[in-house]
Design a protein that fits this description.
This is Polysaccharide deacetylase. The protein is an alpha/beta fold and 305 residues long. The protein is 37% helix and 12% strand. Strands 1, 2, 3, 4, 5, 6, 7, 8 and 9 form a nine-stranded mixed beta sheet that branches. Helix 1 runs parallel beside helix 8. The longest helix has 25 residues, at 77-101.
Amino acid sequence: MTLIAHPADATVFAPDLPASYDAHRAPWSLPGDRRLAVSVLLHAPSYQDDVPDGAVKPLAMAGGVGRDTSEPAHGQVARLSQWDFGLTTGIWRLLSIAERAGVPVAVSLDEHGARTVPGLARGVAARAQEIVVRGSAANIILSPTMGEHAERAYIANARESVARLTGTSPTGWFGPERSMTPRTTSLLRDEGFSWFGDWPVDERPVALEGASRRLIALPHPLETEDMFQLYTRGLPFADYETLLEETIEQLVADADVTGARHLGLSWFGWVLGQACFADVAERTLRLLASHPDILLVTPGEAAAL
């Protein structure tokens, strides 16, 4: 095992992240002397084919047929319907798997999906242990080209809609396409969020400073995210389960040296919720639930540890 010690003067580019956060902090500890806290975040993003004037769209998106990763053109049903599958089938399959394994999960919803997909908001809220806000839609993102007023309104409207339609009071945020601007973290804090999951910056929760003080960055690694590994990286699916198992084993072993670790699993209904992939989700969650060194929590609970 090789651990990299960050130098105290390492340059950190994320805004409001303490520049010496790794070299000088005390080891993280968990209740019951557990070595690894795992939180599972299931994504239920909705793709909006008709985007409002002025909205910022991503240049590329994963999913659909073929190897084309450009942003789908209007009316491309073959590509768009794979995202819809996540809302009509995939997210419910993953919720059922989590329930059978006894693993608490959070589900991220965007304003468009919560408002337009019948039964989605209330149905998910009745089964998930936490609801997370995921912006306006899968393909309407935050951008530095937005003014502060527009960005604040985007965040506030998404939170209000998801809260109202689910009957919950979300405290977590995950941006579509992990999009952010330099001021997003301070705006999230102002709108009442206590954590966000976009930055794969660490293996434990990180408290921000400066204008974003009291906001927690809860890392969700790209390397263990199903969409990123399988669609962006093109990892053979047969290797994905092995990657998850080896990640869990390594983090548990690292805890003896560094203090407790956190793993934020980030899974999409339209990816791991497919029938052909569901057995991997089932075996992984059962492994987590039976592991004596693992503490299973929701993302919000992990951020509060």
